[in-house]
Amino acid sequence: MANLTTDFIGIKSPNPFWLASAPPTDKEYNVRRAFEAGWGGVVWKTLGSEGPPVVNVNGPRYGAVWGADRRLLGLNNIELITDRPLEVNLREIKQVKRDWPDRALVISLMVPCDEESWKDILARIEDTGADGVELNFGCPHGMSERGMGAAVGQVPEYIEMVTRWVKQYSRMPCIVKLTPNIADIRKPAEAAKSGGADAVSLINTINSITAVNLDTFSPEPMIDGKGAHGGYCGPAVKPIALNMVAEIARSAETRGLPISGIGGVTTWRDAAEFMALGAGNVQVCTAAMTYGFKVVQEMISGLSQYMDEKGMTSTADLVGRAVPNVTDWQFLNLNYVAKAKIDQDACIKCGRCYAACEDTSHQAIWMHPGRVFEVNDAECVACNLCVNVCPVENCITMEPMAKGATDPRTGQVVSDYANWTTHPNNPMAKAAE
Amino acid sequence: MTNSQLTPGIVPGRLPAESYVRNFSDHAPPLDRHEAQVAADRCYFCHDAPCITACPTSIDIPLFIRQIATGTPDAAARTIWDQNILGGMCARVCPTETLCEQACVRETAEGKPVEIGRLQRFATDHAMAGPHPYSRASLTGKRVAVVGAGPAGLACAHRLAMRGHDVVVLERREKPGGLNEYGIASYKAVGDFAQAEVDWLLAIGGIEIRSGVELGRDVTLEALRADYDAVFLGLGLAGVNALNAAGEDLPGVQDAVDFIAGLRQQPDRAAIPVGRDVVVIGGGMTAVDAAVQARLLGAENVSIVYRRGQDRMSASDYEQEHAQNAGVRIICNAAPVAIHGNGALREVEFAYTVEGAGGLSQTGETFRLKADQLFKAIGQKLGALPDGLSRDGSKIAAETGLAGVWAGGDCTGGGEDLTVTAVAQGRDAAEAIHASLMG
Ligand SMILES: Cc1cc2nc3c(=O)[nH]c(=O)nc-3n(C[C@H](O)[C@H](O)[C@H](O)COP(=O)(O)OP(=O)(O)OC[C@H]3O[C@@H](n4cnc5c(N)ncnc54)[C@H](O)[C@@H]3O)c2cc1C
Ligand SMILES: Cc1cc2nc3c(=O)[nH]c(=O)nc-3n(C[C@H](O)[C@H](O)[C@H](O)COP(=O)(O)O)c2cc1C
Ligand code: SF4
Asked: What are the 4Fe-4S ferredoxin-type domain coordinates in residue numbering (chain A) (predicted)?
């Protein structure tokens, strides 16, 4: 069995699956049960300053988006940071860490954006035995209106400044959690790095309204007839998170900065994808909230089976493996030619590929008598739409054409690698000559 | 071919060759990848799932289904085998409609449970194509004798070997497997699956099977207790209940289990003789299997006759429906009173019954069914037993009363007489033996 032990910025855990700072990690009861279920670590629900804790709404704080069969695909929330007293949280953190020394326990923090506040909170958590801190610069609602969370996370200078304070007043490893509610994710990551952060984690939740009630005309979740935008998470946000992780992993400025990948991790495969794109570990919230703590067992067995099959002996063998293959569009091989192919034995004759291609693509699928669907190579541009809309996995595949073959659509021979930068249609390419 | 469905008497070759192939092919064909994906996607991953509770071996069903859904069927198989080393056979033979699938919340919601049994088969079939996944703990030097190579004995032996003990299995029959090999309906475990599964199970090492050795005839319990550190009895039920009706010894009258065992051991189904008019007496799975397989062999008329009401039959609704779909007639509330024939079986006479406060009584009205073959399927019972064992009703008590001797499976009380129950009891006995040996 592959060894899933992970060392993330010096913080060791028996596996790379941590629970993200959120309700699953809000209290000792939860975290103990999470550890019993097998989670490798937790980032404790974000702590605020000393003093009266924040309050939450007393009506629904979640909204959701479902797929077929009411599968939860996206969750949105208007919850704030912990609403429990600081001392209670600190006492519990200390006890849990003492009883579970082999698990990672990181404290998430969000306090007002002044040096004193950060110095004070760091002193208070000093003797909990926690393995590190995560700076929550990501929460998109409630806290940002108070000048915290995403309000800081959207201003790279603030990130750098706060990170510097944290590194100055604490010996703990420091992870900066990034908000995705920003145009270019590399900027806050660079700021965190300049401030001395040991790692970044991303993504926090995305500004969203999940639905509108068409009887009361209020956004969901609705509190007494009104609604506020909330933070979106769950499987639906994974593609956005993957891209942001990859951007940081491959950018010259931030390359090598450790990343904790967050956003829609639900199965071992999601986790492996984040890791291949450069995440040293992953954090999970919605999957645990949807299926319970036990869901980690599938992640553990799946990742170890995958690693065994690939001959990987440690998670380090996987981390970053896909990063070199993330490139810019202009470097893609324009001489790579593929054609869709429909497996007639697997086809159930629903015709979705035909509708998609005929109505919205390139009219490259024939519908023969008897509902036989066949690709016309002379029209197929290999866009992949038919593959994506087909309900049967692997029924339609993309078959690359061999070098030297003639593409019946263009009449051109498939030749060696060449990209847009040298393409005759590219005015810039000509200029360069 | 000279015989047909209409040929009187008990004769082979009633059907054209291709009919046998069709009739004895896989009763519930395996799911392909796509079907498995769709079926697995239906599981809700329930908390403290009722299906787990309903499985006698407590397989973590939501977990293994999730592992299938995420493309790791081998991990799914591990989850299954961790609890039930004969998960492959159980996937084929468990009456899931009264076990896990009955408890599925989607049965409540839609009347259509997640297809747990077929998904279990998908995972185990996939992983059995690979190497045996378990290895042995460091050897303890302890030796355990297991008597009976049925599901109980095999499950016990595997778990013991895994814990580092050496195991010798004594089996009186020629082949291991117990009723998996000699009892289960042939269309439930096609392709010699029972032997393939035994071979796969033995690949863990440390288990020696000695066939043709019978406890009581070739070796005594006393000797086993003296020679081994512990003994497990997984004897099954070697005896068969008698009808106690006149004419029971006429030719053509046979125990259903013997008919089935013969059928399982004859790969050329066309060579198996079967009656034109077949009567099966009983109300359980054995009765159904004998009746259905008689039909599949070409019997023209097959009737199951059960002495109580249909709701009291121990064959599940699903099994009963299966029999009826195969063209078997089920007659209830009728008990055999006489078997008529002159040299050969001709007719069976039944009395109608009613069930009242005082139990079952006959109404006095009788009828006769034409029969050239009669199968008795009114229950099995323990065979001859060594002295000193405690009893639990008609069975061996799970606490055998003899130091160093454990028992499980059909020969003991507790739980239904099912493959899966035998596996659970064999496994648990192995853990108890292990705990006691390692003190
Ligand atoms: C016809 C039929 C159909 C069935 N169909 C199903 C089904 O579809 N699904 C299901 O779940 N269950 C089914 N069952 C029940 C199931 O087969 C049994 O519950 C299960 O096999 C019990 O396992 P066991 O190990 O206790 O006993 P067995 O399978 O009976 O194995 C006992 C073994 O011990 C050996 N043995 C006995 N005495 C001695 C001795 N003195 N010395 C040495 N060896 C000895 C026997 O030869 C045998 O190999 C069926 C049973 C029958 C009879
Ligand atoms: C109800 C809820 C509360 C959350 N609270 C916090 C928080 O206090 N601090 C924080 O850093 N992130 C918080 N998050 C964000 C999660 O930690 C995580 O970044 C996000 O949900 C994306 O991961 P997921 O798709 O696995 O849920 C919260 C998320 C949810 C759903
Ligand atoms: S999950 Fe349901 S029952 Fe539990 S606190 Fe929330 S609304 Fe109440």
From this structure: 338-370, 371-401
* Rounded Cα distance, A256 and A260, in Å: 12
ipTM summary value: 0.88
**Do residues A329 and A284 lie in contact, with contact meaning Cβ atoms separated by under 8 Å?**
no
Rounded CA separation B112/B128 (Å): 28
- Residue pLDDT, tens place only, B212-226: 999 999 999 999 999
- Cβ–ligand 1 contact at B216 (below 6 Å): yes
* Chain A residues with beta carbon closer than 8 angstroms to that of B71: 269, 302
For residue A139, the model assigns a pLDDT of: 62
Is B67's CB within 8 Å of A301's CB? Answer: yes
CA distances A138 to A204, A206, A255, B380, Å, are: 5, 9, 21, 69
Q: Are A155 and A130 in contact (CB under 8 A)?
A: no
Longest dimension (CA), chain B: 68
A202, A262 contact by CB (below 8 A): yes
**Are B70 and A298 an interchain contact pair (Cβ–Cβ within 8 Å)?**
yes
Name the minimum distance, in Å, from the CA of A19 to any CA of chain B.
Answer: 19
A430 has a pLDDT exceeding 70: no
Share above pLDDT 70 across residues of chain A, in percent, rounded to a whole number: 98
- What average pLDDT does this structure show over B34-58? 97
What is the pLDDT, as a whole number, of residue A433?
A: 45
Chain A residues in contact with B33 (beta carbon < 8 A): 393-394
Please name the residue ranges forming H helices in B240-325.
Answer: 256-265, 285-296, 317-325
Rg (CA), chain B: 23
Q: How far is the first Cα of chain A from the last one, in angstroms, to the nearest whole number?
A: 55
Beta-ladder partners of B336: B350
A268 and B78 in contact by Cβ < 8 A? no
Residue nearest ligand 1's atom 13 by CA: B418
A139 has catalytic annotation: yes
Question: Rounded to whole angstroms, what are the CA distances from A206 to A70, A178, A180, B12, B74?
Answer: 22, 11, 6, 73, 36
B381 touches chain A (CB under 8 A): no
Q: Band of the pLDDT at A432, cuts 50, 70, 90?
A: very low
Residue B237: both structure tokens together: 């039920």
pLDDT tens by residue, B136-188? 999 999 999 999 999 999 999 999 999 999 999 999 999 999 999 999 999 99
Cβ-based burial of B169 (10 A; exposed 0-12, middle 13-18, buried ≥19):
buried
Residues A86 and A49 sit within 8 Å (Cβ to Cβ): yes
**Cβ contact A305–B45 (<8 Å):** no
Computed over every residue of chain A, the mean pLDDT equals 95
Amino acid at B346: R
Q: What is the pLDDT of residues B249-289, one digit of tens each?
A: 999 999 999 999 999 999 999 999 999 999 999 999 999 99
pTM (two decimals): 0.92
**Is B313 a residue whose pLDDT tops 80?**
yes
Q: Decide: helix, strand or coil at residue A113.
A: coil
Which residues of chain B does A268 touch, with a Cβ-Cβ cutoff of 8 Å? 70, 72
| Tokens at A174, concatenated | 């420091």
Interval A284-316: pLDDT, tens: 999 999 999 999 999 999 999 999 999 999 999
Nearest listed ligand to the Cα of residue B177: 1
Domains of chain A: 6-325 (3.20.20.70), 329-432 (3.30.70.20)
- Angle of helix A186-194 relative to helix A156-169, nearest 10 degrees, comes to 30
